[in-house]
Amino acid sequence: MDVDPEAKRQRRRLSVAPQHVGDITKEFKVDEDEDEDEGLTELEVRCKAHMVLQCAAKSKKGIVPYNRNKVNQDRTMVKWALGDDENAALFGVMDGHGEFGHLVAEFVKEKLPETLGTEKCLREDPEKAILSAVKRMCDSLAQSQINIAFSGTTCVFGVLLDRRLYVGNIGDSRCVLCRQGPDGSLIPIPLSIDQKPDSPAEKARILKAGGRVEPLPGPPGEDCGPPRVWLAEVDVPGLAMSRSVGDEVSQTVGVISTPEIMVHDIEENDIFVIWATDGVWEFISSQEALQLIWQYRDNLKLAADKLIEESTKRWKQEEEVVDDISCVIVSFNKSKDIPVPPPSTTADAATTTAAPTTTVTTSTGSPSSS
């Protein structure tokens, strides 16, 4: 059934600009253009030089007209020579939510490289190391001074070990790989799955923990937006994802911070990977993002600028508010000199079959074929 456009707009407004979200009196700035080369050590420079062709990161604060104190709750993350390993790197984005979501996202940006880098089994058992590192990071967050009762963040990240990429996902930010087909076509390969409360396994866990999965309360028959997580007897917290970092109240009713992990071996026709927050994906499909970046693939900093610019344009066409928008783009291989055919109208990361080498780690930590 088609959803009324006004209902869709209301959903987005509630997501981008609920009461008090990012509304603080002390100014908190985040540079929009991340200079990932600044302050790199010799080891990190060598790591970057031989592991990837290019890397670009950009984050832009959104717009809420009636909130003068709006802060950017997104963060980007790039770490070369992870754990002092010249053949290891970390990439990712975070999308904070709630009053102190920007602090949670900043905490993850600073702490996750540290906990991952000190995992002794990162090489021998990367998936086990990732799960352990995320748990230690979340334990540290719980002991910090940040109020995480109703604040948290998504986190989608990739650990690159040689030519194998381990993508961990917590929440509904997204990671997509661009593969160049034999005919030159651009194929989006999903390396993460949006974790929503109404996904069967996620919903079962939440209900078992005593939570509810329902849309916002509203008049009968009215579209009140996506399913959200609620306490059994009280209409809080209303989280629209089934996994997150932080969100202590939500975690009492089945929301977890355990990442789902996909593993992908980088092949010669895998050109680049995008990690981006939903400020990008709200109005731009995975296929569209690939096509846009492809035009500027020889200059990823410009490509990131163009992706943010187009995302902002789409928000302004549809909304009076604009979400925070962030991306990290990493290229691995040069593209073949083949004309790109027009994209299929149905091709997108939500429906594209992942590569056979991809596996998924579930909430129990056990891998299964994807």
Overall helicity: 25-40%
Euclidean distance between termini CA atoms: 29 Å
Q: What kind of sheet is the major sheet?
A: 9 strands, antiparallel
Q: What name is given to the CATH topology?
A: Phosphatase 2c, domain 1
- The whole-angstrom Rg is 20 Å
Number of strands: 17
Outline type: globular
**CATH classification class:** Alpha Beta
How does this model look, in words?
This protein has 370 residues and is an alpha+beta fold. It has one domain (5-369): PPM-type phosphatase domain (Phosphatase 2c, domain 1, 4-Layer Sandwich), CATH 3.60.40.10. It is built from 9 helices and 17 strands. It has helices at 5-16, 42-51, 101-117, 126-142, 200-208, 248-251, 278-281, 286-295, 300-318; strands spanning 54-60, 74-80, 88-97, 152-153, 155-161, 164-170, 174-180, 186-190, 212-214, 228-230, 237-239, 245-246, 260-265, 270-276, 325-331, 359-361, 367-369. Strands 2, 3, 4, 5, 6, 12, 13, 16 and 17 form a 9-stranded antiparallel β-sheet that branches. Helix 3 packs across helix 4 (126-142) and helix 8 (286-295) packs across helix 9. It is globular and about 60 Å long. Residues 19-31, 349-356 and 363-370 have low confidence and may be disordered.
